[in-house]
Predict the structure of Membrane magnesium transporter.
Amino acid sequence: MSGGSWSTLVRSLCFIGLISLIHCAYSAAQHRSYLRLTEQEFTRLPADILLQTVVSLVLICYSAAHVAGDFLPIRADTQVRTKSWDTVGNCPSFYTFDHRAKSLSPYFAADLRPQ
């Protein structure tokens, strides 16, 4: 298959899986409603609904992984490669100018005296 038709097929499978999963939810709600009307106790969902749910989830996971495209390796050094050590360690958000060293200033004590 060519790249365009494969992409269309995978997107169609993803859409079909989503519609099938919505149908599973509707069928489960309808089954619960039927049990309430017939005054039966709910024990579990029928096997056909469970099977359709599992198949839908597998189809969605498979097609979503292919729709996203090829995965790229995570490389931490790609952004840092072009920077120098001075700019890597520079974090302006941690700068503070209100610190304890101001108490060493000769003008600091004068500011605290009552007037």
